[in-house]
Each structure stands twice: as C-alpha cells, then as structure tokens.
Amino acid sequence: MDIRVLRYFLAVAREESISRAADVLHITQPTLSRQMMLLEDELGVQLFNRTNKITLTEAGVHLKLRAMEIDSLMDMLERDFSARSDVMGQLSIGSGIYSASNEVFSSLQDFSRQFPKVTYEIHTATADKLKEMLDKGLLDFAIMMEPIDVSRYEYFRLRTKDKWGLLLSAGHPLAGKESISVQDLNGTELLVTGRKAIFNEISSLLGEQARMNIRGYVNLVDNALPLVENSDWGCLTTDGAASYLNPEMVVFRPFVPEITTNTVLAWRKYGMSFGVASAFLTYIKQAKLRQE
C-alpha cells in the first residue's frame, strides 16, 4: 500500500468530495477516482458511501484513523532525516500537568533560540494515553508521574517534584488554612486520581480517612472543577496541576507532612541517535533539569 494513496484517501475523507480533493491534490478527478477504487479492491472492502456527498463506511472510518497515524509517522520520519545536517522539524512532547513539566516547557524558549527552525506539538493526556502515543511513535517524549512502568523506555527523573494537596473552592471551610493535615480530611468528601498505583501510594500516607471519604475518581483535574467550585468537595491533586487555575474560584492547599512525587521524562529506546529529539535530549541534560 502506497503512502501516496493513503494521503489521497485522507484528502477525499476530509473534503467529502472526489472533485474537491482532486483540486487540493492537483490531480485529475478520474485519476483520483481510479486510485480510490483500486484501494478498495486491494483491501477488499467498500470505503465510501457514494451519494451526493462522499461519506465513509465503517471500514473507511477505521482506515482513516490508521492512515492518520501512518501519515503522522511518515512526516516525523521525513523530518528526522531532513534534520541530520541542520536541526529542524517538529518536536512532539506529551505530558500531564505537573510542576516538572512546567519547567520543561518553560525551557523551550531557550531551546528555540538555539534551534530556530524547530516547531512544537504539545499534547496533554493521561499517562496511559501518553504511553500509547509513545509506543506508536506519535510522541518523541512523554512526561509522566511515578509510580509508572517505564521498563520499555529510556528515561530519567526530572529534578522538580510535585507536591500533593487538596484543591478546594475559594469559599471552602479549609481554604483559609495554609496547609492540610490528615485530620482535616474528616468530613471532607474527596475526588481522587483515577490512576490506581498513584492513589494507593498517596492514600497509604494519608491513611484510612482518605479512603473513607472518596466520592469519585478523575483522570484530569479539569474534570473535577465544576464539582469543586460549586460544593464542599475537595480534589486530591498536585501543585503543578493546580497552577493554571483561577485563584478566585479555587485554591490549592498542600499536605503536612509534605507528600511529593517524582516525574520522569521518557522516550523510546534506540530512537535518539540524531534529529530534533536528539538535540532536545542533549539540551535537557545540559540544562540540568534531571535529578542528580
């Protein structure tokens, strides 16, 4: 299967018209129609519902998703090899919202001054999604919170640790405190991280009181905001995740004694010999953003 034909297919799917797609691709309509029929013959399925407007069949939708992944990988591969003599191309980084990732992203401005031809693609997602994207080659790097299985990757721990605490509405009875103790959790209903490994580690430090008060689980703190802002519930989260939120609506209060978590910068093994990603990895190490 030719990548060129897959890109033709993506154009038809995007434009929902053979004629418009042909114009975009600068080829004739009969040529494009023939290529799509040959693709259907090769796969043994019908990809399009051919009515007044071209729509995708179930098989067509599946191919579109896979073709987009392949197209993205081909773009990255072409950029990697074009960057051998001059560092240029796109750097793809995925992360949750952590204090450590904030520090990494802040460093991009200085990296850009050194390598002005580099562009960036930043993804925010859960750790499971980031690992999936890393495995598929859709990310150069993933920033993820421990504990996490990184045995398939190269990685190092970032120097900045995230502090755990409670996200509360500005009017919550505990919002006036500078910090939160285990005893303060009594009577406070909690939303907690959906990552079982992290929750087990944090709750073992907080004790049974934290487990007794759980009302729900969230994968990203943004999903908890409507409940936290409009109730007396609290959300177990980190200072990094809370750093972007409106302090007039919600406040973050750290736990005492302090509870911290490490964050890792991970990348696929055997994939950093040259190109933009290799230059960025060298820069991060020289910038001393890793734990010593």
Automatic annotation (TrEMBL):
GO terms for cellular component: cytosol. Coiled coil: none annotated. InterPro entries: HTH-type_LysR_regulators, LysR_HTH_N, LysR_subst-bd, WH-like_DNA-bd_sf, WH_DNA-bd_sf. Residues 1-57 form the HTH lysR-type domain. GO terms for molecular function: DNA binding; DNA-binding transcription factor activity. SUPFAM superfamilies: Periplasmic binding protein-like II, Winged helix' DNA-binding domain. It holds the Pfam family HTH_1. It comes from the Bacteria. Keywords: DNA-binding, Transcription, Transcription regulation. Belongs to the LysR transcriptional regulatory family. This is LysR family transcriptional regulator.
